[in-house]
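Comment thread on ticket #2218

A.B. wrote:
> Attaching the input chain for the structure job we discussed in standup.
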Amino acid sequence: RTVLGSGAPALEAFARAVEEWKLLISAALAGLARESLKLGAAYACERKQFGQLIGTFQGISHPLADLLCDVDGGKFLVWKSIRDIADNSAEAGATISLATWWNVDAATRSVAQALHTFGGYGLTTEYDIFLYNLRAKARPLVFGDPQRFLEEAGRRFYAGETAALPEAGDVPIDFDLGDDARAITREIDEFFAKNVTPEMRKKFHYSWEGFVPELNKKLADAKLLYLGLPRDVGGRGLSPYAKIAAMDAFEHQGYNNPAANVAQMVALMIHRFGSDELKRDVLSKIMAGEVICSLGYSEPGSGSDVFAAQCKATQEPDGSWRIDGTKMFTSGANLASYVLMLCRTNPDVPKHKGLTMFIVPLKAGGVTIQPVHTFQDERTNITFYDGVRLPDSYRLGDIDGGVKTMSASLELEHGGGFSKSQRAMLKNAEELCRQISHDGRPLIEETNAQVRLARTAANLMVSDMLTFRAQWASAEKKPNFAYGPMAKMFSSEKFQSDARDLLDLTAPWSLADREGPAGALNMAYRHSQGTTIYGGTSEVHRSMIAERGLNLPRTRA
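C.D. wrote:
> Ran it. Output below, let me know if you need it in another format.
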């Protein structure tokens, strides 16, 4: 042994060095893990089994897609840790611990899955993947049991434990959303304080059931309804970064407005492709906050495969249209005035080429709306169209050009997830853990609770940063390797698994259906079940991530 120093200064220097080692080993493991996934994906593009490249098998590609989200998230946690140190954030010490635990876990699972992709060859020393496997396990174990990092994060978040932080140096990475984001947050908070009554708040709900017509109109008048719509349409034209902050501000107020999200999509399509009649009679009312719209994409037999739509639109000799068919999960149809319909207009061409978009008044003759209730305390609908007549002026875009028309809505979809719902859930879980008493002390003082809350916090941070990357790539015109699907898939899956875990942690109080954190946590669990389904199932997004993020072959027929 060589004594390098003694006393308090030496102990302080050593403590800082340990924290720096955690960050360095985390960065090394993040890089190692990503390279192992690249090796596995490359092999899956070469190896054939049963006459096909094994990368076409979802049993191979989907686990790799999941791990790509985890590995990229681990890299971002390292970046956030360094940024937190530079900013002197109170979370800096906890984030270091989370980054270390996360990357150890993600690297271990990534190298194992990559080796598994090689099959028996991965066990041999002929392929380098075995080195990645051994080093991913050996390097972090110098410290001891990696689970201790998660326990340490829990203490740093919830028990006041402090950390000796190393110097950050120059940090070129910034997670701040900017002044515009802070300004829109203040504006929304001030609007709600001035305009929202207790009676309105009682109706608030994460689903369409929380729609308040009076509030919708006031938000439109204040230019707070269509925040993502471009200014040339009449929207606020917020930057992607400010829009993230705005969505969080609405969630903080307990107000989620899917009606506005759909209405602004329909408004953009009408603005780009609609007739003068549609713009005069429908678009003007949408922009004024007087009416809302629902989506008629999914059908009973097609689900996420919207291009398989069979709801038929037939053109009559006078140029008008007759619509016949059924749409499923037409959420909000019981509240909306119009539905955006994707209809089959040509059955004799490839399915994605024979579709046309229409705006259908839901009060038209031949329209029937039937409720479909869910265990999420949410109503959706099945809608029937029997000989519904429309003038040609209610068609959007070219006949058989529905796919092109739909692409207009992509201007509003830069990739996002469920961070705002995860954040609200974590806040309610923390509050409930402070209220619940076990053996004479609050539940939040127990290591078990701290660990599970810290793990939820880590999932929230990664969800945030995956969303930030998707927005950044869009705003800065960068190459986009399925960043939006990564943010959506990861956040919805973690929202669901964390909701399940936190419901267990706080049982039996979490079974309560009452105002406050217990009822909110119960509702978060119910809400989370649908997030991995609507907007495209996790399986659909995993295939997109595998193809665009790992260059694996197409996994759908």
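A.B. wrote:
> Thanks. Noting for the ticket: The longest strand covers residues 379-390.
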